[in-house]
Amino acid sequence: MWRRVTLDVHLDHPPARVFPYLADPGTWHDWAPAVELRQRVGAGPPSAGSRWSAVDHIIGPFRVRFEDVLEVVEPNERVVWHSTSPWNSRVEYACSAEDVGTRVHADYGGDVAGWLRLVALLPTFVLSRILMRDFRGLQRLLDAEDARAGAVAEPA
């Protein structure tokens, strides 16, 4: 079942702070609620074709195992991921500076397989709300980093 969801999100941090999180699956479990695991397959610096074994926690006890493959990376601007079956999806994050923050255009599209087709049947506005949780989590994480940095920088 083919589905597509696009989001246009503003984060209160510059692209140099936002982009590294979108481009590094190893950090996703820190801010994306469904992500249980992303573990790099292979060695060397990430580049097009790099793979991560992945586990997402969907609903209740249900977990989905697949691989994420880095397709495109343009530092601080754009990253594209492909997730293998059962997601069979492509996610593109395009970042641009906006005032003091970042505008992220997120484009999710895929041909979901198996029992995950039930998730794909959800109305677009519901899927959008679910995906927005990731961006709220990323905003909180970056805000917390700023708060910690401010606390360290203040004299005692």
Strands, total number: 7
- Can you tell me the residue ranges where pLDDT is under 50 for at least 5 consecutive residues? none
| Helix percentage | 25-40%
CATH architecture: 2-Layer Sandwich
Strand arrangement, largest sheet?
Answer: 1-7-6-5-4-3-2
Sheet with the most strands, sense and barrel status: 7 strands, antiparallel
Please write out the topology:
Blueprint: E1 2-11, H1 15-23, E2 35-41, E3 51-57, E4 63-74, E5 78-83, E6 89-98, E7 101-111, H2 117-120, H3 124-153
Antiparallel strand pairs: 1-7, 2-3, 3-4, 4-5, 5-6, 6-7
InterPro entries: Polyketide_cyclase/dehydratase, START-like_dom_sf
Protein name: Polyketide cyclase / dehydrase and lipid transport
Question: What is the structure about, briefly put?
Answer:
This protein is α+β, with helices and mostly antiparallel strands and 156 residues long. It is 28% helix and 40% strand.
How would you describe this structure to a colleague?
With about 160 residues, the protein is of the alpha+beta class. The chain has a single domain (about 1-155), classed as START domain (Alpha-D-Glucose-1,6-Bisphosphate, Chain A, domain 4, 2-Layer Sandwich). Helix content is about 30%, strand content about 40%. It has a seven-stranded antiparallel sheet with strand order 1-7-6-5-4-3-2, covered by helices on one side. It is globular, with a radius of gyration of 16 Å. The mean pLDDT is about 95.
